[in-house]
Amino acid sequence: MKITRVQSRPIRIPLKRFFYNSKDAGTKCEWDGKLSRVTPKRPSPILEYVLVEIETDEGVTGIGEAPADIGFFGQFLESIGHAIDDYLGPLLVGREPFDIPALMERINFRENSCAKSGIDMALHDLVGKVHNVSVCEMLGGRKRERIPVAVEIAGGSPDDMADECLKYMKMNVRAFKPKIGSYPDKDAQRLRAIREAVGPDVSIRADANRGYTVEEAIELCHLAEKYHVNLELLEQPVDPCDLPGMARVCRETNIPIEADESCFGPGDAAAVVREKAADVLNIKLGKAGGFLNAMRIDALAHAAGLDCVIGTAFGLGLGIAGKLHLASAMERFTGAVEFTELGLHGPLLKGRWDKDLALPLDEDGCLPVPTGPGLGVELDHDQVEHVTVHGIT
């Protein structure tokens, strides 16, 4: 079997509002700038993705998905598509698909982690289909059948954020990640209001999105303890380059500290471990460059005695299924896996999975890990065609 074609498909989904673009958040960030994801070329709130198809001479096709988010990854729809179609994909044509590590090493140029993650996912889907095994089995074995779900809560007033959690709880969500990173006293009041609203048994973690100084991060942790928030962890409290500052926050607080923007690939993860800059490593397929590197980060964390979080990067049904397979195969992860995309748009899948991988959740607050070969899901091509970008410039 030989690879005959690697091609991308750009996807654009309009949104009524972008999740993070809250004018009431009171953050120190400039929401009209890069964090809003709105640019002169994209004046309306949208989410963008790139689908990847890898075809073979025996008629088997693997499908993957790459996030396109200049606001976080620094990579965008056009660049990811060109990287796949013009540079990375052609290097795989004519080769057998089975030695995925060798193929990914062949395209292991610097940067382009999102494009590589889509190719990596499509290769795993393809080889899984050929061998009739699921992706989680390829990654080391199916350790879990169901995965608990967390969603992010956009910044706003304490009451608004608490109310948003209560709305999700009606859909059986039992884990939340409020967006904070403004001023410790205001953020502590937000977390306090959420805890009082959701009760003691719901998981709360918080994401500062690198918004604090070291001193402010320490203050927020102390206030969260004072208010009995029972905060599961604090994500990326300070600038991602300030590993010594992150290490100080770890030393001087009792709340586990998570590295997200500080931890893209395995090299970043190793640096975080060396500096003792975090208790938890955040894994996203788009950051890591695919399943292979994600599992390398997981192994590194396990060896160092750290936990991992599988974080939000948004995604269609392929991306959701990919995170579920990753979570099923990993040694361990902290709390719930983040699936904020469930509240933004549908998974665009065919058959039962279009509902099974969507809200509302079952009473246990989990999503099922697909059991079929490869990713175990199939895109609904009519839905996909409706959001495909034609003639992109």
Structural description of this entry:
This protein has 393 residues and is α/β, with parallel strands linked by helices. Helix content is 37%, strand content 17%. The chain has 2 domains: 3-132 and 379-387, Enolase-like, N-terminal domain (Enolase-like, domain 1, 2-Layer Sandwich); 146-368, Enolase-like C-terminal domain (TIM Barrel), CATH 3.20.20.120. The protein has 14 helices and 13 strands. Strand 2 and strand 3 form a beta hairpin. Helix 1 (77-88) packs across helix 3 (113-131). It starts with a strand and ends in a 6-residue tail after the last helix.
Structural class: alpha/beta
Could you tell me the CATH topology label of the largest domain: TIM Barrel
What is the count of distinct domains? 2
CATH superfamily of the largest domain: Enolase-like C-terminal domain
Radius of gyration: 20 Å
Please give the count of helices: 14
The CATH class assignment of the largest domain is: Alpha Beta
Find the count of extended strands (DSSP E, 2+ residues): 13
**Separation of the first and last Cα atoms:** 35 Å
* Largest β sheet strand count, sense and barrel closure: 5 strands, mixed
CATH architecture of the largest domain: Alpha-Beta Barrel
Q: What share of residues are in beta strands? A: 15-25%
